[in-house]
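Quick entry between incubations.
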Amino acid sequence: MFTKSFAPLVATLAFASAAPAPAVIPQDPPYYLKPTARAPGTAVDGGVLNAVNGGLFIGQDTTTDCPGSVYPCDTFTNITAITVSNSGSGASMDAYVPGGQIAYINATGEFGYTAAHAQNVPSTATQKGFTRIEVFGPRETYATVTFKGSNWLACPVEGAASVYQVNAAAVASKTGCVGFEMAAIEVGSSEPQAYEYVAPYTVS
Ligand SMILES: *[C@@H]1O[C@H](CO)[C@@H](O)[C@H](O)[C@H]1NC(C)=O
Ligand SMILES: *[C@H]1O[C@@H](CO)[C@H](O)[C@@H](O)[C@@H]1NC(C)=O
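Done. Structure below.
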């Protein structure tokens, strides 16, 4: 039911034969990744991961903000994108806002990110542990993003049909969730995708 966004990414790459997929841990610089869920045969397969009010969700639209009076907001695509640095410095949202927006995994395993101008990472959250590994398959090239070496859980949101919240499997212990691989494709260039992603100033 979700739009598949795994059209061949780099069709010109000569990975035509079904050779085993080599995995490469790239060095910096980080780049800008639009994440989707891979979990063949499940309801979340192909679902786009969107930043919504401080969390990451499948089945909900991204929430962004932009001060139109000072900035040409139409230049932002408002796609949810994250940057993952393999230097160990963590992950952040692909936002233009000065100071950026830090990504983290909170104590119950939820993927979260700070509000603009706030740097409000919960004291019990973990910022380090994100890794991106390039996967060169026969038909597509993408980066798989892990947290502390593990994949992700899409956990149903109470009262919201077909909406799932993204949790790190290494931290979360929740029932009823669907495991998935976070597969990200490179988007855009050095231009951030959003001015800022909406997030609460008070976090837990
Ligand atoms: C992106 O969202 C902002 C609000 O955050 C809006 O002003 C802007 O028009 C949107 N951009 C596009 C291309 O729709
Ligand atoms: C993670 O922690 C739980 C328990 O305190 C809160 O209910 C969530 O809102 C929080 N999620 C994020 C994304 O910070």
